[in-house]
């Protein structure tokens, strides 16, 4: 498990009225990480602007799948399998799912039939 938090350096910027405002730098485009494990995902265009998203067709922008661009393949499959285990097989309960991925499993449960 790698889930380390991305820390941004707050910067103090003096305003015209002498007040100091702490500005959190947005930094460069951060790469999209999986919402559960934080892994950098394939298939998602990270850059914005002319050379980025706009040139790509819709299907190229993000994987055209459930949780595409949100979860990595591994966690997505996991969520779907867990959802199926709960909804179809009934051998798991939502309480068995970790808090972090529970939301996604619930979402997947709505999609699996
Ligand atoms: Zn993941």
Automatic annotation (TrEMBL):
Arranged from A to Z, the UniProt key words for this protein are: Ribonucleoprotein, Ribosomal protein
> Which GO molecular function entries does the Swiss-Prot or TrEMBL record give?
structural constituent of ribosome
Looking at the record's lineage, which domain of life comes first? Archaea
Span of the secretion signal?
A: none
Q: What is a biological process (GO) this protein takes part in?
A: translation
Native source species: Candidatus Iainarchaeum sp
Q: What protein name is recorded for this chain?
A: 50S ribosomal protein L34e
Looking up Gene3D superfamilies in the UniProt record yields: 6.20.340.10
Instruction: State the similarity comment.
Output: Belongs to the eukaryotic ribosomal protein eL34 family.
Record's GO cellular component, any one? ribonucleoprotein complex
């Amino acid at each position: 498990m790698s889930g380390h938090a991305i820390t941004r350096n707050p910067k103090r910027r003096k305003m015209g009225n002498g007040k100091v405002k702490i500005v959190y730098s947005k930094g460069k485009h951060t790469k999209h990480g999986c919402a559960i494990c934080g892994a950098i995902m394939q298939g998602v265009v990270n850059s914005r602007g002319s050379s980025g998203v706009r040139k790509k067709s819709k299907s190229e922008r993000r994987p055209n799948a459930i949780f595409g661009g949100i979860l990595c393949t591994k966690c997505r499959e996991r969520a779907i399998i867990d959802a199926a285990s709960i909804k179809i097989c009934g051998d798991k309960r939502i309480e068995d799912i970790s808090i972090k991925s529970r939301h996604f499993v619930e979402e997947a449960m709505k999609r699996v039939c």
